[in-house]
Amino acid sequence: MLDQLAWELLQTRGAKMRLILMYKATNFLIALDSQLYLTPIQSITRHHMYVYRHIQATQNYYYKFSYYPRTIPLWNYLPTNTVGSESLEAFKTGLARCTLPAHLM
User: Helix crossing, 88-97 with 10-26: angle to 10°?
Assistant: First the structure.
């Protein structure tokens, strides 16, 4: 039925919603002080300019699956032209073209 209706899996839709919120937070489109949790990586090699350090949550099992530890690896995976979008609509369009890896969702 999902194929017939051309719907995405719930897991994929949830990941994309988290990435949209991350775009809004990174571009200061919402009143969320994400700088408390996001640490930019200064050395840019193969990735875009908004690469953030992964949050290691080995001791606290619940925190491991919270918003930032789950979303940062997906955000860092996105291509440069998607992350650097000029508007939220352009980001959503770029995100729709991306194939997110299942192991990061």
Answer: 150
105 lies in some domain:
no
Closest CA to 15 of 101, 82, 80, 83: 101
Domain contains 93:
yes
Type of residue numbered 86: E
Distance separating alpha carbons of residues 93 and 47, to the nearest angstrom: 20
- Please tell me the total count of domains within the chain: 1
**In a domain? residue 4:** no
Residue 84 contacts residue 48 (beta carbons within 8 Å): yes
Residues in the chain: 105
- Which pLDDT tens digit goes with each residue over 6-23? 788 888 899 999 999 999
pTM score, whole prediction: 0.81
Residue 64 structural domain: 12-99
